[in-house]
Structure formats: C-alpha cells, structure tokens
Amino acid sequence: MTSGMFHLAGTEDYNHESHFLEACFLCRKPLGYNTDIFMYRGNTPFCSKECRQEQIEFDEAKEKSWKMSSRSLRKSDPNKNSAPSKTSRTGTVAVA
C-alpha cells in the first residue's frame, strides 16, 4: 500500500491528484522525477534558480509597495495626533 504523499507516477494504481511538487509555481513547467527543485517560503517549488529569484523579487516589490502605502495611510489619517497617545487599561482578568 502506498501513501498519496509518496506515490510515484507510472505505477498501476496511480490516481492523478494535484500535488504541490508537480509544476513550477511561476512558469508551470512540470517538475520531473529526480531533478532539482528550488524551494521558497516553505512549500513553493520552482524549476530553476531564475524562476525562484523572479518570485523573490516580485514578493519584495509587493512588500515594499505595501509598506509605502501603509505609511502614507498613517500620515494622512486625520484622527491621529502628531504626539503618540498612551492608553492604559485597568480591570480584572479571570482565567478558568
């Protein structure tokens, strides 16, 4: 009996289920058996260093854009004072 996670293509009882290591995340090129797979951020597979690097650059640009837009939203918030506000909370917390 074989587990779905370790099942190899070409066996008689092969049921085609999509697996995250079937194709490159970026270009969708099929990832072959016994070939190098370049991983990024956990379980994101790429067929080459170039595809992986392109995704890394894309993610970095997206993060930079997000940080810039987040800063501009904070600066343009009319409800915020220029001085930092301090909040204190008092009360009782019961833990069961």
Automatic annotation (TrEMBL):
<dbReference type="GO" id="GO:0008270">
    <property type="term" value="F:zinc ion binding"/>
</dbReference>
<feature type="zinc finger region" description="FLZ-type">
    <location>
        <begin position="19"/>
        <end position="63"/>
    </location>
</feature>
<keyword id="KW-0862">Zinc</keyword>
<comment type="similarity">
    <text>Belongs to the FLZ family.</text>
</comment>
<keyword id="KW-0863">Zinc-finger</keyword>
<dbReference type="InterPro" id="IPR007650">
    <property type="entry name" value="Zf-FLZ_dom"/>
</dbReference>
<feature type="domain" description="FLZ-type">
    <location>
        <begin position="19"/>
        <end position="63"/>
    </location>
</feature>
<feature type="compositionally biased region" description="Polar residues">
    <location>
        <begin position="79"/>
        <end position="96"/>
    </location>
</feature>
<keyword id="KW-0479">Metal-binding</keyword>
<dbReference type="InterPro" id="IPR044533">
    <property type="entry name" value="FLZ1/2/3"/>
</dbReference>
<feature type="region of interest" description="Disordered">
    <location>
        <begin position="60"/>
        <end position="96"/>
    </location>
</feature>
<dbReference type="Pfam" id="PF04570">
    <property type="entry name" value="zf-FLZ"/>
</dbReference>
<protein>
    <submittedName>
        <fullName>Zf-FLZ domain containing protein</fullName>
    </submittedName>
</protein>
